[in-house]
Amino acid sequence: MAIQDEFNKLLSLLRPIILSERGGNLNAWDMRLNPSPGVAVLAEPCAKRLTEEIHTAFTSQEIGDQLDLLASNSNNLSSEQKTAVERLLQIHQRLKKVPADVMSDLSELTTKAINMHQQGKGTGEFEKLLPLVYEVILKTKEIAGYHGAGDTAESIYDAILPDYESGMSTVRLRAMFSRLRNHIVALLAQIKEKPEPRGVLQGD
Predict the structure, then answer these.
(1) Where are the domains of the chain?
(2) Per the confidence metrics, is the pTM higher than 0.85?
C-alpha cells in the first residue's frame, strides 16, 4: 500500500475519535450556555465516559502501529503530514503512560468545576470551588507522575507542559519572559505618561 494510502487509513481510524471529541466540546459549550444543575447531572458523567472512550481508542495498538509505520516512512509525506504524524505519535505515546480512568476522572472533575463556576457567577460564592480546584490540582499532579515528574513545582510543570506546548520547558519559558519583561515594563511606563483616554460613550 502506498504511503498516502496509509496516511488516509490513519485519518479513517481517527475520524470516530475526532467526532467524539467534538461531541465533548459541544457538551462543554452547552454547559456554558445553560449552567443549570440539570445539565450538570448529564454533563459530568458524559465527559467522563467520552474521555475514557477517546483515550482507549487513541491509544489502541492499531493506531500506534499506523503512526509508527508513517513515522518510519516520513520522508514520503508532505511537511504538513509529517508534522501531524510526529505530534500525534507524541500524544499517543504520552497518553499510553496514563490509565484511561485517571484521564476520565480529571475530565469529570474539570467539567464539574466549570459547571460550578458558571452557576456561581454573580453570587460571589466562588470559595465553594476551592475544594474542587484542589482535587483537579491533585489529579493533574498524579498524571504528571506518570510522566516521571518529581515533587517540585518545576518538575510537575515540565511533565505536563508538552500536552499544551510541545517542546517547551520552564527553563525556556523563564528565558522568554525575562526577555519580554524589560520591553513590557518600558511600554507600561509610556502608557502611564499619556493622558487617560475618554470613555467610548463620551461625546463632544
Answers:
(1) 3-150
(2) no
